[in-house]
Amino acid sequence: MSRIDTLEALRALYGHPSGRAVEKEFDRLDRHFRGFIEKSPFVLLSTAAPGGLPDVSPKGDQAGFVLALDDKRLAIPDRPGNRRMDSFQNIVENPVVGLLFLIPGMDETLRVNGRAEIRVDEDLLDRFVHEGKRPISVLVVTIEEIYFHCAKAFMRSSLWRPESWPDRSSLPTLGAIMRDQLGMAKTAREVDDDLAEAYRTTLY
């Protein structure tokens, strides 16, 4: 096996990006970036602690749940989760983050790189009240790089085409997986029922 372990070797293998690939990068929001974010119900958050493992965490809510505070800052509400706090622990130690926004059925995505801080300002939390409940905190990301990513990965994967999706019955449920991995005494159906109830009562 031959390993690529220098930047020179990497560029020798792949070459350099075209002018358009470089020129499409900006450092603040415009109307096209804003429009995409307003229609996106789902974003992936990437983080990494110094000397630690990276983490990618999904964030989802109703379309437009990520707000633009101004041309440089995005605000993402944090709803109840499992309290692992992998991403937020990383951010406390290393504020550099990456975001990948998706819109269902659209092959292009929006990438954002910048620095994040965890905020609990009362007025900011109040902007994200849903069903009478405020988020636990709000992640504010200051944009340093923002650009649209091409559609090739989604075209190759046929991600949005239902005819390409696997038969769901061919895959175990999360309850069945947890029962096996954790050696739980409950049946898979019972674990699935517990999960469904937790989702119902702690979604917001």
From TrEMBL:
Superkingdom, natural source: Bacteria
Q: Where is the Pyridoxamine 5'-phosphate oxidase N-terminal domain?
A: 30-150
Q: Which Pfam families match?
A: PNPOx_N
What InterPro entries has UniProt attached to this entry? Answer: Pyridox_Oxase_FMN-dep (IPR024029), Pyridox_Oxase_N (IPR011576), Split_barrel_FMN-bd (IPR012349)
Q: What is this protein called?
A: Pyridoxamine 5'-phosphate oxidase N-terminal domain-containing protein
What organism is listed for this UniProt entry?
Fulvimarina manganoxydans
